[in-house]
Each structure stands twice: as structure tokens, then as C-alpha cells.
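Async update (no meeting this week)

Hi team, since we skipped the sync, here's where things stand on the single-chain job. The sequence we agreed to prioritize is pasted below, unchanged from the tracker. I ran it this morning and attached the output directly underneath so nobody has to dig for it. Comments welcome in thread, and please keep replies under the output.
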Amino acid sequence: MYRLLRAVAGLALRWYYRDIQVEGLARIPRRRPLLLVVNHPNALVDALLVAWFVPRRVLITAKATIFRNPLAAVLLRWMGVVPLRRASDEALGPAASSPARNKETFRAVHDALRSNGTVLIFPEGKSHDEPSLAPLKSGAARMALYARATGNVADLAIVPIGLTFERKEAPRSRVLVQIGEPIFMSSWRAPTGAPPAEALTAEIDGRLRAVTLNYPTIDDATRAIRLASLIAALFDDAPTIGARSLGVEMAIARRIDELSIRLQGADDALRRQGDQLVRRLDAVEHVAANHGVLVEDVGIEVDGGSAFWFVLRESWLVLLAGPVAIWGRINHWVPFWAARGIAMRSIDCAADPAMRTLVAGTAFVALTYMAQTALVAVLWGPAIAIGYLISLPVAADINFSLSDRLRRALHRARAFLRFRHDRELQHRLRDELRSLRDDVRAFDRALGSELSVPTL
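Output:
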């Protein structure tokens, strides 16, 4: 059942998000007990992501309030989810602040770790929309310290995992999963005089911040990520149809943070230079947008030969995959539309659209599949019905992939026609981008290092 639910979760995530990139998977040890500590920006989606990409069965901890629904409680326990009772959710009284309120959960976690298992915990305590990590609870640290103190959990590792969503509420956006450096409890020691639980919580906080982006306000986050995307496009010499890696943009965003900190101690001339670079980046994006093109498409070739091969390649792909994609769209339009309609009816936080769409969509798609397969079995027999059932998710995958590619191809075609008509515009934009690239590198060197984007 766990394998089946994991496969379904993976399918739903791939359909909702355009690209899910996982970095550092090799840092997850394969043969030792693990405590996965993960930031919590997107409610249930976070747990689904971790359970999908981690190559081990994961015991998930979740807030006890979701177990109040009897149906949800049965399903969650069937999946192996254990309730974690937060003080803020408890009725007023001694139990609200007593660590004993989670005695059963701690026992379940310890039993899993003792059996060489993998446990997921969200140390922030709850999902939220803030652009930075919330203060961490000490539960993960206390679990790890207790496991070490008992002596019957050997080689426990705490693995920090950072989840970054381009736009967590938006379908066909991108997700970045980054696995940080593990903390090996066999060798970890608290600084002299520091309470172990507090010291380990601080260590977990530092490791999580190394694999997440953290900003004071949402406006700061939006501005920094947009600037990172512009700089990534600036260094993209060979524009392609495929989506650029979100990991590249996040690496640049972190570099911008480092430069911003260094810039605080720099002289006025260097600060003015930084402000001017940002204004120039904004200006070149504005000019490109006014002409209906993207910055990353400024470098495309506009000769007839390049256009011919582009049209030939994309047309051939549409001819081959188009009928299957149309089949996938026809079969899934109703359940997807219904799920999205339910998800957008009332939104309390930015995590609601994705979470509700995934849950409702999974249910509607399953019902649709069962009805269609039963009808095919009646009409043509069980063998054809099984083949029909297998074809449905494959057709949906192809539909999503081809739709994304066609949208990107349309942008490229629009840029080609614009630059073909106005060569001087392309030359002007290319020259400005080339100058900006040189100036960004020089500015970075002036602050003490060399900007590099090796994955482009």
C-alpha cells in the first residue's frame, strides 16, 4: 500500500509541477537510521514530495489536529503517519505544555529508528507562508538525543532537506529539493556549557538555512528571486526549449544575498555601481517585455536555416506526440477542472490550491479511471481494459510535457519574428546583455569573488 500511494503521489506531483529538481540525493545514507528535518512551506505537499523522492520508506509525523476527522485518521494511520501534538493545538491546561503529551509519538519514532528506519519531521511545527524559516521547535533534537542516549539506535543521522517552490500555488511551476550535509549523532557534541537540545536545534537550524532561501519580507523574496532569474538569463548563451533549472536561479539568489551583505561595508561608489546594475537589468527586461520577448530569447539565431530546423523539429514532435496528448487532455479535462474548481473556492493560505488540487484531483482521476476501465472491460474484455488503463496516465504525462514545450516554442517563435523584423533591436539588446554580463562579473570580483554559473 505504501508503494502504491508513493507512486500515486509521484504522478500527482509531476502533473501539478512542471519540474521537480532534487540536489544532493547521494547525501541520504542508505543503511542507517535517519531523521529527516524539512522546512514546511506547502502543507501536505511537503510530505508527499519527501516520501516520493527519498528511496526508503518514510514514517511521517503530522499535527494531531488532522486526525480529528475519522476518515482522515484511518487513512493516515494506514499510511503510517503518526500524530504530533503541538502545545498550540491543545486545550488549556497542564497537558498543553507537558512534553509527555507526545509520549506515544516519541515511542513510535524511536521504534522506527531502532529498526533502522527513516522518520520525517517538520521542526518549524506548522506550515506557513512566510519567506523565512520559522523558529524551530526542539522536538527533532530531543528525539535524536533520546535515541542516542538509549544506546539501541546505532549511527543515527539527521538529514536537513530544503524545499523551495517557485510559486507553490501555481500549476506547472518549478520545485527545488536540496539535501544538506547530515549531522551524525555518533560524533556530534554540544558546545561546553550549552544545553544539548538547544545546541542541536541551533545546529539543525543552521543546516536548514543552508538549503533554503530566507528573506525578511515577501517583497524582498520576490525581488531577489526575480533578480536571480534575470541574471541566470543573462548568462544563458544557448537558449533552449526546456525549462532552466530552478537550482541555478536559487544559487544565484544566494550569491546575491552574500553580495548584499558585503556591500553594506563597501564604499559609496561600489554601492552606487550595484544600484546602477540593478536598474540596467530592470530596464533591459522592460524593453524586451515591451516587444513581447523574453530576455533568455535575445540570443536566438534568426537566419532561415535555423528557423527551418526549428519548425521541422517542433512539427515532427507535434505530429508524433500530438494525438496522444489530445487523448490525454480529453480523458483528464473533467477531473482536473473539477479538482481545480474545488481548490480555488476558498483559499486561506498559499498552500491551499496545490494541496486541495492534488487531493481532489487524485480522487476524481481515480473515479474516472475506474469508470472508464469498467466500461471498456464490458465492451471489449479485461485484457483491452488493462491496456486502456495503462495508457491513461501515460497520455496525461505526454499532454503536460507537450503543452509546456509548445508554450515555450511559441515564445521562441514570437521572438524570432520580432527580431527577424527588427534586427537592430536584437543587436541593441545583445550588446546591452553582453555589457551587463561583463559588468556583473566585474562587480562580483570587486566584492571579493568570481560569479560562476557552472550548470548553464
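Quick observations from my side:
The chain is about 60% helix and 10% strand.
The first helix runs from residue 2 to 16.
Reply here if anything looks off.
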